[in-house]
Design brief:
mainly alpha, 78 residues, single chain, elongated
Length: 78
């Protein structure tokens, strides 16, 4: 079975973002496990993909909020 391994925290992005990435990687590994069964449950896969999309949206939102916050502190426009 192929997995992407475990998430390695990135210094400087904070515990919340690292936690979201950790959850996302864990789910991606679960998708791989489900596919490796040879007869994946389509409903289970759909649920996992829906959760992955929700996590990705949270990651994007938190990243955008961090950029806005940095912009307020530094005055740098993005």
């Amino acid at each position: 079975m192929v997995t992407i391994g475990t998430w390695e925290d990135i210094d400087g992005i904070g515990e919340e973002l690292n936690g979201l990435f950790r959850q996302s990687w864990c789910l991606l590994n679960e998708v791989g496990e489900e596919l490796a069964t040879g007869d994946p449950d389509r409903d289970e896969l759909q649920d996992m993909f829906d959760e992955l999309v929700a996590l990705e949206r949270k990651i994007q939102d938190r990243t955008y909020q961090r950029m806005l916050s940095a912009n307020e502190i530094t005055g740098i426009q993005f």
